[in-house]
Amino acid sequence: MIARLVLAFAKVGLFAFGGGYGMIPLFERELVVRHAWISHRQFVDAVVLSQVTPGPIATSTGAIVGYWKAGVWGALAATAAVTLPAAAVVWLLARLVARHGQLSWLKAALKGLRPVVVALMAVAAVSLAASGVWDWKSAGVALATGAAVGVFRVHPILAILAAGSVGIIFF
Amino acid sequence: MIPLIRQEVVERRRWLAPEDFLDALAIAQSSPGPVAVNLAVFIGYRVAGAGGMAAAALGAVLPSFLVTLAVVILAQRFEYHPLVVRFFAAVRPAVLGLIAVATWDLARAALVDKRAWALGTTAFLLVLALGFHPGVVLAGGLLAGLVVFRRDAA
Predict the structure, then answer these.
(1) Contacts by residues A87-90 (CB-CB < 8 Å, ≥ 24 positions apart)
(2) Quick check: A37 contacting B, CB < 8 Å?
(3) What DSSP state is assigned to residue A159?
(4) A134: helix, strand or coil
């Protein structure tokens, strides 16, 4: 199990451009769709936990799903696996930039990557929405959270805690 | 996390000049993986070579790893407590709201012209309708960017 965890998380770490929520589509594809290690619902729970704990979403998701599947060693292995391949790329780029001293080609590649990351996030949003059970209350929470964070710029962690409190009272 | 790193590295310890920090951030953001960890790796390498790189990566990941592990162990123990169940029942749809906002914010920064829209739409359809692996589509976007945006970046 640990070897398979390492492979899956290394793959996500290597392809996860865009940072933060940009990793969600890849995690969903690997953990939920491809290996079926966790359900959509557990995946969303992992995202919640990784959001309310400190540190980057990707490493926290590694720790959480790794722990669920293979205990503390699984957590350690998955966190390392999601971090190290990316670190190798950074190291490579750092050396390239030190030698050639210009970033223009990197910026061009990034410009091409960004629309793709947006597209992948949109796909993930569609697939998560399709996997959930929707009633008036949960649709209301989703809309209110979107408005609070998107329009009024409430911090995501605060929004999650607020939504959870609403849940404790009304759900 | 990034403003905190900037404050520590540029202002307090003066390991990097402000413009070097911007370059470091550009590299961290254009590499795959968590941006904050990438940034730590790059700065560690610049300041103290391979050993610095390893130390910075460990320092960036380990404390939050331990906290996350503690939280997930606790959460699992109280998984079926009614309060926890109700908390997560409301937070799950909230996460969708968060992802939607994050997508929207990134879309405004990324979909700057017709070429970007074309790339994004193609990627969306390839993954959603034809089931392409996200990694393949990302690699395609990277190459497309090198070809299509080469001239305006220079």
Answers:
(1) A87/B33, A87/B37, A87/B38, A87/B41, A87/B53, A87/B57, A89/A14, A89/B31, A89/B32, A89/B33, A90/B27, A90/B28, A90/B31, A90/B33, A90/B38, A90/B41, A90/B42, A90/B45
(2) no
(3) H
(4) coil
How far apart are the C-alpha atoms of B103 and A22, rounded to whole Å?
9
pLDDT one-digit tens code per residue, B121-131:
999 999 999 98
A19: its two tokens: 């940072």
**pLDDT below 70 — which residues of chain A?**
101
CB A112 within 8 A of CB B141: yes
How much is the ipTM here? 0.85
The two tokens of residue B21 are 């920090």
Q: What is the pTM of this model?
A: 0.86
B22 half-sphere exposure, CB direction, 13 A CA radius: 5
Nearest chain B residue to A20 by CA distance is B34
CB contact under 8 A, B99 and A128: yes
Residue with tokens 């008036």: A136
**Which residues of A are less than 8 Å from B64 in CB distance?**
53-56, 59-60
d(CA A136, CA A167): 13
